[in-house]
Here is the input.
Amino acid sequence: MADRTTQDDGEDDGGGGIRTFPFPVDLSVLGVGMQVGPMGDGRTWHARAPLERVHRVDFHVVLLFGDGPVRHMVDFVEYEATAGDLLWIRPGQVHRFSRTSEYRGTVLTMQPGFLPPATVEATGLYRYDLPPLLHPDAAQLAGLEAALAQLRREYEDTATLPLGPHTAVLRHCLTAFLLRLSHLAAGAAQAARTPADTAFTRFRDAVERDFPVNHSVSAYADALGYSRRTLVRAVRAATGETPKAFIGKRVVLEAKRLLAHTDLPIGRVGAAVGFPDAANFSKFFHQHTDRTPAAFREELR
Here is the structure.
């Protein structure tokens, strides 16, 4: 996390919603599009960034924990990390720190656009379907720690190379680290899959694309060419829940993001996630969260 030296207090999203904090280029060594250094108390993205309140950033954050346990919220899900775990937060995800004094380890931040498109694709930088919390084994952790340590040495070495070659070396070292990290993330996701995952993956992708306009399990089954029973089995095997519950969770997450990020009227939030009638949206949201949309928004302000 960057030192508390900048006065930029972030950007307003939607007229007073939760702020999105941009990458603090002015705090990077030589102004490059990444930072790497120790976590710890007294450090933040910006002087006025409310780390212990819900916020989001427009850059990648990777936390490698050297101690724990630490609880950290990502997209309204609480994760508990301990020594040797990594937490990968992608641009735009809502998150919240616990007390920053509890954080020990190394933090890497990276501005979108710092790496070329081919590297972005190879490292899965925008695979939001992958789990944010990762638990490497001893060999994986050793490789990640070595790659991150090399990246940090190159980042802090401002005397050996001019800016152009220095930046190129950073990109290469960062790519090496991210390839290890993405392999770990993909492996974690694969380990959680089942033989029925092909059907589930197609369903998951369809929901991600169409949930604002389609909440019908039968409609998804017909569009994918499965019977409703086959779809139910596949989703239950992969997630332990029904297709209806899976759709509902995705709709609720998007509604929470809109309620948190913007000052859109409740009715417009509902319409954005497939509920033209505001009363029906409020009833749906309350059933899934035990709170009204207005109460949820108020808790975050």
User: Anything to note?
Assistant: Strands lie at 20-21, 34-38, 55-57, 60-65, 70-74, 77-81, 86-89, 94-96, 105-110, 133-134.
